[in-house]
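If you are new to this repository, start here. Below is one unmodified record pulled from the training split, so you can see the exact layout before writing a loader.
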Amino acid sequence: MTTLVPGPPRPPVTPVELVALTRSDRAVLSNLGQLYRHDLSEGMALLPNPDGTFNNRRLDAFFVADDPSAQGWLIRVAGQTAGFVLTRADGTGGQVLGDFFVVRALRRSGVGLTAATAVMRATPGRWTLGFQDYNPGARSFWTRVATAVAGHTWTLEHQPVPGKPELPPDSWLTIPAVGSVDPGDPVNPGDLVYPGDPVDHVGQVTATAPATDPSAVDTWP
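And here is the target side for that same chain:
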């Protein structure tokens, strides 16, 4: 007789919210950034500093406010902090999704897919993003996101890592045209699930738009 072993407990996965980052969230982003860099450390041969922390210049630069096109959101699920998203303009009319992180307890729950598609649809047009081939989970996830927002119109190519010839090339995914959706409206789960996706639950997402007052906007280069 087969004994079924229950799976690990799962935290709530709805509702999903995108809340614009402000300077008051700097400590939150810094803390999440340590988890983010630890995730990347295996594939990028990163080691922590003597004090046990990882360098995180990209996230630190977000608060320098050099690039007015940059935007960032905290991902919150059921009112709890669950991750972050950082984006910027690419200088040619498109957007770059530069950094994206969801805590491990909420991966493969639909939260990441919901948040990523909502961010892209809030700024329609061309989107690009990079990931590494040694992370097969990233490739699977981002191609599902791209298909959810633009069908099979996306393309994938390899590009060398600037200034780091010793590293394998990055994979860059380009989505030529993402359609729009009101970021305050619930996302239709049927629009987010790609056939074969292991996601077990897709929730609804609402987004708090970034402030337009320059004194309240935090940016990164």
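Two things worth knowing about this chain: The beta strands are 16-20, 71-77, 80-89, 95-102, 125-131, 155-159, 170-178, 205-208. The first strand starts at residue 16 and ends at 20.
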